[in-house]
Amino acid sequence: MQQTEKQSATTPSPFSWLHPRKGGFATFGDLLVLILLFVVSATAASLVVHWLGYPMPEPAEEGIPYPADWDFITFLNYALQMAFMLLLTLLYRRFRGGEAPLARFSTRGLNPALLLGGVVVMLALSVVIEPLLGLVDVEQLPMPEPGKGGWTLLSVVVLAPLCEELLCRGILLEGLRSRYGITAALIGSSLFFALIHLHPVMVVNAFVLGLVFGILTLRTHSLWPAILLHAFNNAVALLLTWAEFPGERFDGRPMADLGLGEMIGNPVIYSIVYGVALLICLRAAVVNLRLLHRISSGQPLKTTNEVPVEPPKIEKEGAE
After folding, report:
1. Is residue 17 within 8 Å of 177, Cβ to Cβ?
2. Which of 109, 117, 240, 299 has CB atoms 3.0–4.6 Å from 224's, for a disulfide?
3. What's the pLDDT tens digit per position in 190-228?
4. pLDDT digits (tens, 9 = 90+) for 119-161
5. Phi, then psi, of 105 in degrees rounded to 5
């Protein structure tokens, strides 16, 4: 009887997020503060870039090209913005009494099979959510125009994955998990990751990818899979923006402007591809829901490459 009571006291409930621990970083109210800090960081970065003599140009219109130094300006602006954001977040976290680890870089996150599975799930998700993204009128809400040089590649494929994963799956995911539990931490960190991307198309895509990155971080106890898959996703997106799809009927449009169905050109084949992608996503959802339940309850995982995240220890009042 005593053993049963002890197990029930240490095993977190699936609804533990409804009864958060008192005090400390991070709460859902802190998410609002971090969004404000993100706006402050963006503003400060723009002011510094302007002070350095590199004013941010207005978006190109009516075929007017961007300036030659557009790549470097956007890289400098983004680097400063994320530096300010990480610094302000760490200061705010310290002020709020955050004690969760900032980030974990276990080598278990470099499991090739796990990374390959993550790539397959990401590609399947991109196919499944594409019709939803197509509902956004990109003519009324144009996507940000990336540069086409080495500075853009460095910013999108290296800097963004490192900084955003450290912020969202490192500081924020760990902070929310220590207070609310795994489920709320996964959703909250993914939501914040989505909101900082601003554009509706990018918000939806980022939220879905945030769930994938968060699950892999919880599964491996490491930021490496999230960073590597984030870099892979950004590299593919950048290449699709740069590349022109071959064929006369596409008029040299970038591949990023074309839907998968339009590129395939055959409704039957597209339906088969979409069906396979949907099955992969459903299977991944079932597997990962079971995985999260095992992690939440402290059960050991099946392979040595997967490490359960221990539930936060809550000290009893009056304990020595």
Report:
1. no
2. 109
3. 999 999 988 777 888 999 999 999 999 999 889 999 999
4. 999 999 999 998 887 666 555 555 566 667 889 999 999 999 9
5. -130, 55
Sequence-ordered list of residues with C-beta below 8 angstroms from that of 92, at least 6 positions apart, any chain:
25, 30, 33, 34, 37
C-alpha 263 chain-centroid distance: 27
pTM to 2 decimal places: 0.82
Yes or no: say if 238 and 152 are a contact pair by the CB < 8 Å rule.
yes
Asked if 266 and 189 touch (Cβ cutoff 8 Å), the reply is no
The candidate with the shortest Cα–Cα distance to 77, out of 108, 110, 97, 53, is: 53
Helix, strand, coil percentages (3-state) for the chain, rounded to 5, are: 65, 0, 30
* DSSP labels, 21-36: PSSSS--HHHHHHHHH
**φ and ψ at 63, to 5 degrees?**
80, 5
Q: Give the position of tokens 């898959």.
A: 229
What is the distance between the alpha carbons of residues 46 and 251, in angstroms, rounded to a whole number? 36
